[in-house]
């Protein structure tokens, strides 16, 4: 008798759109294991094993998100967990082959609380709150008790403190290797997803080393030089020759390097990789349809990064070079911006959108059993206080509040208690088996 958790079922259902192409790829090498897996896929997708089709994934493409300035209070896109039970970790490997690192920019504990209350009620849980291991991270930078996203991102990427405004280097401008670069050294595939420009502070902390976060044209060029397999977000203007001071056409260069360039949801869903560059707006994303949502981008990134190199399938039994795993960073960028504006409704919306990306990571990890998922924030924004029936803002900037840490998968036991934000990166490195971290970049 085969028993699967709902989250495991959701993995297969979330990939239902790609089942047909996957089957066509692998049928050339049928054996008994594949026959079993084929039966399992059909059973889960078409209900032959008793799966309730009403429990399938949220259909992000069907709901019209509406106008960005008027409909932020509409959260019908969100479907919360069916139970409050924490995710089980039975059968997981001891070492993390894959890491999915999700960062909610500006997301403090109260941002999570008010999103929970609005979406599932005070007694419910968001997907991130179903993680079995929780902690808190301190967020001060090298030169201020209140960090910005550059210094916060550098702490989470490189495991070091730096001054506000600096990326991937210490206050003396000495560059340090980040988690993404360390993963590449191990032969792992890598990806960045953001709802800001892909060259904005947090993703830039994983793809650049520069003394000023405002130099997005230079950051975009450095990100391209890093040969990151999957890049999905906004910021197309920084890649176009007509907008760049150096007149480099980074999109043309990306094509020459083998990237598939995608500009809308359909193109993204059809992209096969191995290199995909999706820039869906000239600036940051609107986080409204018809753009791909952060959940859809996360799902696609996982799909591309988890495939075997040679035959392009997610099946571990057939051919191709050994898949050494992957590292993926996903940022819910605009929680921060909603809180800068002291807009609680948009803070809720952005947090729930981000939580659906967390769910995509969780259901993959439940199926894969070799994946560590870590969720945290670079800082809290707005000094938000939950007074029960109302919320109060402490200001329009960042605060020095500690931020939540949620962990699930191999190595998740490392993330208990109160830790410095640099420790989050160091614990991820330890779980992955990365040696010498932090380390000066050669």
Describe the structure.
This protein is an alpha/beta fold and 442 residues long. It folds into two domains: 1-57, no CATH class; 81-432, Alkaline Phosphatase, subunit A, CATH 3.40.720.10. It has 14 helices and 14 strands. It has a ten-stranded mixed sheet with strand order 5-6-4-3-7-1-8-13-2-14, with helices on both faces. It starts with 5 loop residues before the first helix and ends in a 10-residue tail after the last helix.
What brief labels describe this structure?
442 residues; alpha/beta; Alkaline Phosphatase, subunit A; 2 domains; 10-stranded mixed β-sheet; two-stranded antiparallel ribbon; 14 helices; 14 strands; disordered N terminus
Summarize the structure.
By secondary structure, the protein is an alpha/beta fold.
What order do the helices and strands come in, and which of them pair?
Elements: H1 6-14, H2 16-26, H3 32-46, E1 98-104, H4 109-120, E2 133-138, H5 149-158, H6 179-185, E3 189-197, H7 201-205, H8 216-225, E4 230-234, H9 250-256, E5 260-262, H10 265-270, E6 276-279, H11 294-305, E7 326-332, H12 334-340, H13 344-368, E8 371-376, E9 380-381, E10 385-386, E11 391-392, E12 398-399, E13 403-408, E14 417-420, H14 421-432
Parallel strand pairs: 1-7, 1-8, 2-14, 3-4, 3-7, 4-6, 5-6
Antiparallel strand pairs: 2-13, 8-13, 9-12, 10-11
Helix pairs in contact: 1-13, 2-3, 4-13, 5-14, 11-13, 12-13
């Amino acid at each position: 008798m085969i028993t699967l958790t709902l989250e495991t079922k959701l993995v297969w259902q979330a990939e239902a759109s790609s089942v047909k192409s996957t089957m066509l790829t692998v049928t050339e090498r049928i054996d008994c294991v594949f026959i079993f897996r084929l039966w399992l896929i059909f059973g889960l997708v078409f209900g032959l094993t008793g799966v309730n089709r009403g429990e399938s994934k949220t259909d992000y493409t069907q709901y019209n998100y509406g106008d960005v300035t008027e409909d932020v209070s509409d959260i019908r896109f969100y479907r919360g967990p069916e139970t409050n039970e924490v995710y089980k970790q039975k059968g997981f490997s001891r070492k993390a082959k894959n890491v999915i690192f999700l960062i909610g920019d500006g997301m403090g504990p109260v941002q999570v609380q008010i999103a929970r209350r609005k979406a599932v009620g005070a007694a419910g849980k968001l997907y991130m709150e179903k993680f079995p291991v929780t902690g808190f991270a301190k967020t001060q930078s090298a030169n201020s008790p209140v960090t910005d996203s550059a210094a916060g991102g550098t702490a989470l990427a490189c495991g070091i403190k730096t001054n506000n405004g600096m990326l991937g280097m210490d206050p003396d401008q000495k560059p340090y290797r980040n988690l993404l670069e360390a993963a590449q050294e191990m032969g792992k595939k890598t990806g960045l997803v953001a709802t800001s420009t892909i060259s904005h502070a947090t993703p830039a902390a994983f793809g650049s080393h520069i003394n000023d976060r405002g130099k997005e044209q230079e950051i975009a060029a450095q990100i391209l030089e890093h040969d990151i397999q999957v890049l999905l977000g906004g910021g197309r203007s920084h890649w176009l020759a007509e907008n760049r001071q150096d007149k480099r056409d980074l999109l043309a260069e990306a094509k020459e390097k083998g990237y598939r360039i995608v500009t809308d949801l359909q193109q993204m869903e059809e992209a096969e990789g191995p290199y995909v560059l999706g820039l869906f707006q000239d600036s940051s994303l609107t986080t409204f349809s018809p753009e791909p949502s952060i959940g859809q981008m996360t799902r696609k990134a996982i799909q591309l990064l988890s495939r075997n190199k040679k035959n392009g399938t997610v099946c571990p039994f057939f051919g191709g070079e050994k898949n050494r795993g992957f590292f993926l960073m996903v940022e819910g960028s605009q929680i921060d911006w909603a809180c800068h504006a002291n807009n609680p409704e948009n803070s809720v919306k952005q947090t729930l959108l981000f939580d659906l990306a967390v769910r995509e990571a969780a259901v993959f990890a439940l199926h894969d059993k070799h994946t560590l998922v870590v969720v945290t924030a670079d800082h809290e924004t707005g000094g938000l206080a939950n007074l029960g029936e109302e919320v109060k803002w402490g200001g329009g900037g960042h605060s020095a509040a500690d931020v939540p840490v949620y962990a699930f998968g191999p190595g998740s036991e490392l993330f208990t208690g109160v830790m410095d934000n640099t420790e989050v990166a160091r614990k991820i490195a330890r779980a992955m088996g990365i040696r010498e971290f932090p380390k000066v970049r050669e």
